[in-house]
C-alpha cells in the first residue's frame, strides 16, 4: 500500500505544477498552492476517521529496500540495511492531522504574501512535505532527512520572505537548529552503527530486550545510553526551544511572514516535543528517569521565564514568541512528570498550542496587513472598528491563558496533573505561570482591542493602512473559524484525541515499567 | 431530574445564537435571552420539585481518559444545588428583563444579552457540577462571563482596566483552587465530591492534607467572592453596566465562592484549622469592607463594598459550621442585593450620575424606585420582619453557638455599620432637596425595569420566612433532607441584632436626614482615618508598590538577562568561531613565505614535542 507515501509527497504535485506557471500569475499560484495542500488534508482526515472507527494503523506501514550500509558476515542479513519506511500510530497521526490542517490554513492565509509568490509557495509546499514526513517516518534516517527538508525550506522562507531583519533571523534559525541537527545526527549515527538498524520499532526492541546472536555489533552500555539520550534531548531542546536556547525563536516569530509562523509555531516546534516523546521515552525509558527531574525543572523555568518576559513586550509578535517559550515549558513539565497524565498532557499541549499559535499568527498577519504595525502601544480600541477580528483575537488570548473549554486548558491541566503526582512543590511554582499567562495575554489583547481608538494614523515611515477599517475578510474569517472550532472541540471533548493516543501511550508506559 | 442538564443549556443556546445572529436581530435579542432564562427557570423549578422525593441524582459522561483513570463531566442534583439553580435562574431572568429597559439603545445590545447568557450558563453549570474538575472549568467560565461584562464598555479605559483586574485577581485565587484540586486528586484518585468526602470520612486523606487542600480551595473562593485580601477587583467591577453588577453581586460570580465552600462542606468540617480560616477571613472582611462603605460617594461602590461585607457574613457562617445559615443568607442577599443594584441602576438611569453627592430629593420623583430601594435597604440592614433580619440573625446565632465570641461581636459591629452606610446612602439619594440640576427631566424607569424590582422587593421580605424561629425552618429541613436540628440560640441575640440595625439607621438619619450631627463629623475629627477609609485602606496602592512592582522588576531584570547574557553567550560562541575562521583565512594569503613560515613552525613544534616525550607515543 502506498497511502502514506501519497499523503506525505502529494504536495510535490503542487510544486511540479507551479513550476509551469508564470511568476506574474499570482492568482493562479495562490490557487494551485492552496489546492496542493488539500490532498494531505483529506488523506489525513480519512486516516483519522478510519482510526477512530477502529482501523489498525499498522496496516498502513510501508517498507522498501533502499540502501545497504555495510555487510558483515557474522551479522544477520537485515543488519545495516536502511529501508524506505513509513508508518504511523495514534500519536503521529495526531501530528499529521495537525500539520495537514495548518498547512491548508497557512496556504489560505498566504494570500497576504505578495512578493515572489511562486517561489514562496514552492518552499511552503516543500516545508509541508518535510513536516508530514517527519511524523510519518518509521526510521531515523528518513526522520532526519525530512527534518532537514524543513530546516532548508524554513531557512529560505524566513530569509527571503521575512521582515526587516529577515536574514539575521534566518541565520539565527539555521545556526541553532543546525547545531541541534548535527547533534541529532551524531546520536543517530552512533545508534545505527551500534545496532545496525535505524527502524524505531526494531531499535526499541533491541534496546529493551536481550538481543539474539548476530543482531548487534556491540551492546550499548548504560553509560552510553545516558549519553545518547542526553544528546538527543539536547538536540531537541534547541528545536523546542528550551531556555536558554530560545533566542532564535523570538527572531523567527517576529521576522517570518505570519503564515509561515503559523506552521513554525504550530508544527515545527512540536517536532521537538514529538522527538522527545518518541525517541526519548520510546527508546530510552529507563535512562529518561534520570533526566526527568531536570526536564521538569527546565519546564518550570521555561514557563516562568517566557511568561515574565512576555509581560513586558510591546510588540505583539514578541508577546506571542515568549508565550510560545512559556507554553513549550508545559510540554517539558509533562515529560518531566513521566507518568501517563504528564505525557498525555505534553501531547495535548503540543496539539493545542499548535492550533492556538496558528490562530494567533493568522490574526497577527491581519493586523499587520491592515495597520502596518503590530505594536500594541500604537493600536487600541479596535473592537469598535473591527469587532469580528477583535472577537477572534480575544478568543485566541483566552485560549493562550488556558481558559477551560478551550484546548490549551486540557494540555496545561493534564501536564500539571502529572507533575503534581511527582513533584508537587515544583508544580505549584510552575502553576504561578497561569497567573502571568492571564496577565500578558489580556494586557496585549486588551491594549489592541479595548480602550480608546488608536492606530487610525499610520505611524511615520509606515505605509497607509490599505483598508482603514476592513474587518476580517472571508478568506481570513473561515480559517479563523475553523481553528476556533477545533480549539473548542478539543477543549470540550478531549477524549476525541485521547482515544487515539491510548494505545501509543500504553506502549510507552509498558516501556517505563508500568 | 434526569433532565437537569437542560437547565444550563438554554442560556448557552442564547449565547451562541446571539453571537451569531445578534447583530441582525438587534432589539429582538432581548426576547431570546429572556425566553432562554425563563425556560431555565422553569426547568430549575422542575428539578426542585422532582428533588422533593429526596433522592440525589447523578449522571456522568466521559470527558477524557488518562490511562486507567476516567475523568468525567456530569450533572448531579442535590438539595443544595437544586436550591441554587432556582435562585440563580430567577435572579438572572429578572436581570434579563430589567436590562431590556436599561440597555435600550446600546449599540451592542445583542452582545450584552449574549454575554449574560454565557454568564448564566457558566454559573448554572458550576452549580450542577458533580466533581471538582468540572466545577473548576465552570468556575473559570464564570470569571470569563464577568470579565466580558465588566469590560462591556470596552472603549472606556477604566472598564478595560477593571475587566483585566477582575480576571487577574480572581485568577490568583483560581491557581490556589487548581493546586488544591490537583493535590486532592492524587490523594483520593478522584475529582468527585462523593469520593473526596468518602476519603475524608475514612481517613484516607491525612488531616494535614485535608487542611492544606481545603485552604487552597478556599483561596479560590476568596478571589471569586471578593474576600480580603483579593477583594480589590470587586469595587472596580462597577465599571460594568449596572444590571451586570446586580447579576455579579447577587446570584453569580461572587456567590460562586460561597457555594463552593458549601458544596465542599464535609471537607472543611473535617479540619478545624480550615474552618477557623474561613470564619476569620469572613468575619474580618465583613467589618473591613463595611468601614470602607461608610465613606464612599459612588452609589455603586457603596453597594460593592456592602457585597464584600455581606459575603464575609456568609463565610463567617460557613466557618462557624452553619451551612444552612450561609445558604439562607446567600439566598436573601441575592434578592435584596439584586434589588438594590437594580434600583441604583434605575436612579443612575434617571439622573445620569453615580455620585451620591449630586443626588438628593429623588423620593418623590421616583415613586417606584425609591420605596423599593427602601425595602432593599431595610432588608440588608436587618430590620425585623424583613428577610435580611432572619438570615443575619441565623449567622449571629451560629457564630455565638460556635463559641467564637470575638467573631460574634465583629459581626454585630458589621451589622451596625451596614445599616448606617445603607441609610446614609438612602438619605443622601432620596431625602432632602436635589443638590444638583440634572439634564432633562428626571423620570421613573419603564415597566420592564420596575417590574423585576417589584418581584425582588416582594422576595426581599418574603424570602426570610423560609427559615424563621416562628414558622419553621423549611430551608434547613430541605438542605439537610429533614435531619435539621436548630441549635437554640439565646433570644437576646435577635434583640441585639435588631437594636444595632435600628441604631445604625437612627445615626444615619441624624447625620444625613435630620442633620443634627454634622456630616463632616468623622472627617473633621479623624482626617487620616477618614482618608484611610476613603482610599480603601490603600490596598490598591499597596499591591501596586509591592506585588506589581516586584513582578515588573523581575520581568525587567529577566529582560536584561535575555538580551545581554543569553544573547551575549551566543554572540560569544559565534564570535569565537568567526575569529578562528578569520585567523585561519588570514593565513591563506597566497604568499609562499607565509606558508613556509607556518610549515617551519609546525616542524619545530613537532620536534620539540618529540624531544620532550621521547617519541614513545609514535
TrEMBL record, chain A:
It is a multi-pass membrane protein. Keywords: Membrane, Transmembrane, Transmembrane helix. It comes from the Bacteria. The chain crosses the membrane at residues 29-49, 93-113, 133-158, 170-193, 227-249, 261-284, 290-312, 319-338, 350-368, 389-410, 425-446, 480-505. It is found in: Cell membrane; Membrane. Residues 137-429 form the NADH:quinone oxidoreductase/Mrp antiporter transmembrane domain. Belongs to the complex I subunit 4 family. NCBIfam families: NDH_I_M. This is NADH-quinone oxidoreductase subunit M. It comes from Geobacillus icigianus.
From TrEMBL, chain B:
Residues 63-113 form the NADH-Ubiquinone oxidoreductase (complex I) chain 5 N-terminal domain. It is found in: Cell membrane; Membrane. Gene3D superfamilies: 1.20.5.2700. The chain crosses the membrane at residues 6-22, 29-49, 69-91, 112-130, 136-155, 167-186, 206-223, 244-268, 274-295, 302-328, 334-354, 366-387, 407-430, 451-471, 491-512, 595-615. The keyword Membrane applies. Keywords: Membrane, Transmembrane, Transmembrane helix. It holds the Pfam family Proton_antipo_M. Residues 129-418 form the NADH:quinone oxidoreductase/Mrp antiporter transmembrane domain. It is a multi-pass membrane protein. Its main location: membrane. Signal peptide: none annotated. The keyword Membrane applies. Belongs to the CPA3 antiporters (TC 2.A.63) subunit A family. This is NADH-quinone oxidoreductase subunit L. It comes from Geobacillus icigianus.
Amino acid at each position: 500500500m502506498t497511502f502514506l507515501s501519497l499523503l506525505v509527497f502529494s504536495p510535490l504535485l503542487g510544486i511540479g505544477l507551479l513550476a509551469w506557471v508564470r511568476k506574474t500569475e499570482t492568482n493562479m499560484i495562490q490557487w494551485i498552492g492552496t489546492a496542493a495542500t488539500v490532498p494531505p488534508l483529506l488523506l489525513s482526515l480519512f486516516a483519522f476517521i478510519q482510526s477512530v472507527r477502529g482501523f489498525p494503523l499498522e496496516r498502513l506501514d510501508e517498507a522498501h529496500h533502499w540502501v545497504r550500509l555495510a555487510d558483515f558476515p557474522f551479522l544477520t542479513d537485515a543488519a545495516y540495511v536502511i529501508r524506505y519506511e513509513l508508518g504511523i500510530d495514534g500519536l503521529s497521526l495526531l501530528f499529521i492531522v495537525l500539520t495537514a490542517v495548518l498547512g491548508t490554513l497557512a496556504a489560505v492565509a498566504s494570500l497576504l504574501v505578495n512578493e515572489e509568490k511562486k517561489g514562496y509557495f514552492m518552499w511552503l509546499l516543500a516545508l509541508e512535505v518535510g513536516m508530514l514526513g517527519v511524523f510519518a517516518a518509521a526510521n531515523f534516517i528518513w526522520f532526519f532527512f525530512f527534518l532537514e527538508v524543513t530546516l532548508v525550506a524554513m531557512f529560505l522562507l524566513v530569509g527571503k520572505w521575512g521582515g526587516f531583519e529577515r536574514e539575521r533571523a534566518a541565520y539565527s534559525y539555521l545556526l541553532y537548529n543546525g547545531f541541534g541537527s548535527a547533534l541529532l545526527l551524531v546520536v543517530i549515527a552512533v545508534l545505527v552503527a551500534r545496532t545496525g538498524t535505524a527502524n524505531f520499532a526494531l531499535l526499541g526492541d533491541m534496546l529493551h530486550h536481550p538481543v539474539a546472536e548476530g543482531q548487534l555489533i556491540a551492546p550499548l552500555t548504560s553509560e552510553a545510553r545516558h549519553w545518547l539520550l542526553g544528546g538527543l534531548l539536547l538536540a531537541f531542546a534547541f528545536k523546542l526551544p528550551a531556555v536558554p536556547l530560545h533566542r532564535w525563536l523570538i527572531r523567527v516569530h517576529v521576522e517570518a511572514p505570519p503564515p509561515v509562523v503559523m506552521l513554525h509555531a504550530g508544527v515545527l516546534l512540536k517536532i521537538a516535543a514529538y522527538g522527545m516523546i518518541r525517541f526519548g521515552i520510546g527508546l530510552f525509558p529507563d535512562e529518561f528517569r534520570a533526566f526527568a527531574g531536570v526536564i521538569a525543572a527546565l519546564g518550570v523555568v521555561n514557563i516562568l521565564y517566557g511568561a515574565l518576559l512576555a509581560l513586558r513586550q510591546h510588540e505583539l509578535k514578541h508577546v506571542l514568541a515568549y508565550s510560545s517559550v512559556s507554553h513549550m515549558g508545559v510540554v517539558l513539565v509533562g515529560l518531566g512528570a513521566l507518568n501517563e497524565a504528564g505525557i498525555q498532557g505534553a501531547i495535548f499541549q503540543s496539539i493545542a498550542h499548535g492550533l492556538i499559535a496558528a490562530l494567533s499568527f493568522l490574526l497577527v498577519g491581519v493586523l499587520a496587513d491592515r495597520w502596518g504595525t503590530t505594536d500594541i502601544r500604537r493600536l487600541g480600541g479596535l473592537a469598535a472598528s473591527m469587532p469580528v477580528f477583535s472577537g477572534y483575537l480575544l478568543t485566541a488570548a483566552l485560549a493562550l491563558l488556558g481558559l477551560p473549554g478551550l484546548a490549551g486548558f486540557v494540555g496545561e491541566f493534564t501536564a500539571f496533573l502529572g507533575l503534581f503526582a511527582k513533584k508537587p512543590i515544583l508544580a505549584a511554582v510552575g502553576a504561578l505561570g497561569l497567573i502571568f499567562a492571564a496577565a500578558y495575554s489580556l494586557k496585549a489583547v486588551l491594549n489592541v482591542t479595548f480602550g480608546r481608538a488608536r492606530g487610525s494614523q499610520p505611524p511615520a515611515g509606515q505605509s497607509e493602512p490599505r483598508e482603514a477599517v476592513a474587518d476580517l475578510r472571508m478568506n481570513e474569517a473561515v480559517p479563523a473559524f475553523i481553528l476556533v472550532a477545533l480549539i473548542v472541540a478539543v477543549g470540550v471533548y478531549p477524549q476525541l484525541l485521547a482515544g487515539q493516543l491510548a494505545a501509543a501511550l500504553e506502549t510507552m508506559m509498558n516501556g517505563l515499567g508500568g | 431530574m434526569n433532565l437537569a442538564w437542560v437547565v444550563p443549556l438554554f442560556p448557552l443556546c442564547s449565547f451562541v445564537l446571539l453571537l451569531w445572529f445578534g447583530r441582525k436581530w438587534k432589539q429582538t435579542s432581548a426576547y431570546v435571552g429572556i425566553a432562554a432564562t425563563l425556560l431555565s427557570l422553569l426547568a430549575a423549578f422542575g428539578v426542585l420539585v422532582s428533588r422533593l422525593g429526596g433522592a440525589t441524582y447523578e449522571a456522568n459522561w466521559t470527558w477524557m481518559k488518562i490511562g486507567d483513570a476516567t475523568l468525567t463531566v456530569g450533572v448531579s442534583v442535590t438539595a443544595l444545588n437544586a436550591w441554587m439553580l432556582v435562585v440563580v435562574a430567577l435572579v438572572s431572568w429578572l436581570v434579563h428583563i430589567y436590562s431590556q429597559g436599561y440597555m435600550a439603545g446600546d449599540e451592542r445590545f445583542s452582545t450584552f444579552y449574549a454575554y449574560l447568557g454565557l454568564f448564566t450558563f457558566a454559573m448554572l453549570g458550576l452549580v450542577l457540577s458533580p466533581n471538582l474538575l468540572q466545577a473548576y472549568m465552570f468556575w473559570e467560565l464564570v470569571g470569563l462571563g464577568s470579565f466580558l461584562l465588566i469590560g462591556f464598555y470596552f472603549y472606556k479605559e477604566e472598564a478595560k482596566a477593571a475587566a483585566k483586574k477582575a480576571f487577574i485577581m480572581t485568577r490568583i485565587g483560581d491557581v490556589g483552587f487548581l493546586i488544591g484540586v490537583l493535590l486532592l486528586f492524587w490523594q483520593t484518585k478522584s475529582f468527585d465530591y462523593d469520593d473526596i468526602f468518602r476519603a475524608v470520612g475514612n481517613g484516607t486523606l491525612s488531616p494535614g492534607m485535608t487542611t492544606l487542600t481545603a485552604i487552597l480551595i478556599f483561596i479560590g473562593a476568596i478571589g471569586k467572592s471578593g474576600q480580603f485580601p483579593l477583594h480589590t477587583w470587586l469595587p472596580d467591577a462597577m465599571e460594568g453596566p449596572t444590571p451586570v453588577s446586580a447579576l455579579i453581586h447577587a446570584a453569580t460570580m461572587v456567590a460562586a465562592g460561597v457555594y463552593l465552600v458549601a458544596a465542599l462542606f464535609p471537607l472543611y468540617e473535617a479540619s478545624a484549622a480550615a474552618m477557623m480560616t474561613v470564619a476569620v477571613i469572613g468575619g474580618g472582611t465583613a467589618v473591613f469592607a463595611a468601614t470602607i462603605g461608610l465613606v464612599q460617594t459612588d452609589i455603586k461602590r457603596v453597594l460593592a463594598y456592602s457585597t464584600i461585607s455581606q459575603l464575609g457574613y456568609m463565610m463567617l457562617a460557613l466557618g462557624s459550621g452553619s451551612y444552612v445559615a450561609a445558604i439562607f443568607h446567600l439566598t436573601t442577599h441575592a434578592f435584596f442585593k439584586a434589588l438594590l443594584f437594580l434600583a441604583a441602576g434605575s436612579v443612575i438611569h434617571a439622573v445620569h450620575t453615580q455620585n451620591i453627592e449630586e443626588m438628593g430629593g429623588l423620593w418623590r420623583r421616583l415613586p417606584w424606585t425609591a420605596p423599593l430601594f427602601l425595602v432593599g435597604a431595610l432588608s440588608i440592614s436587618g430590620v425585623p420582619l424583613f428577610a435580611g433580619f432572619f438570615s443575619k440573625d441565623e449567622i449571629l446565632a451560629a457564630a455565638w453557638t460556635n463559641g467564637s465570641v470575638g467573631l460574634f461581636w465583629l459581626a454585630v459591629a458589621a451589622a451596625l455599620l451596614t445599616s448606617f452606610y445603607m441609610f446614609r446612602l438612602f438619605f443622601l439619594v432620596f431625602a432632602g432637596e436635589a443638590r444638583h440640576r440634572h439634564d432633562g427631566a428626571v423620570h421613573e424607569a419603564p415597566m420592564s425595569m420596575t417590574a423585576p424590582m417589584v418581584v425582588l422587593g416582594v422576595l426581599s421580605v418574603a424570602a426570610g420566612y423560609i427559615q424563621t424561629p416562628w414558622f419553621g425552618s423549611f430551608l434547613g429541613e430541605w438542605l439537610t433532607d429533614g435531619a435539621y436540628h436548630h441549635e437554640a440560640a439565646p433570644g437576646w441575640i435577635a434583640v441585639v441584632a435588631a437594636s444595632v440595625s435600628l441604631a445604625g439607621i437612627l445615626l444615619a438619619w441624624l447625620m444625613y436626614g435630620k442633620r443634627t450631627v454634622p456630616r463632616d463629623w468623622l472627617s473633621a475629627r479623624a482626617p487620616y482615618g477618614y482618608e484611610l477609609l476613603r482610599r480603601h485602606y490603600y490596598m490598591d496602592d499597596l499591591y501596586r508598590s509591592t506585588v506589581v512592582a516586584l513582578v515588573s522588576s523581575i520581568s525587567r531584570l529577566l529582560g536584561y538577562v535575555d538580551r545581554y547574557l543569553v544573547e551575549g553567550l551566543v554572540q560569544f560562541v559565534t564570535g569565537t568561531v568567526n575569529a578562528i575562521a578569520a585567523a585561519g583565512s588570514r593565513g591563506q594569503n597566497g604568499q609562499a613565505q607565509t606558508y613556509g613560515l607556518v610549515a617551519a613552525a609546525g616542524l619545530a613544534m613537532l620536534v620539540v614535542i618529540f624531544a620532550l616525550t621521547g617519541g614513545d607515543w609514535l
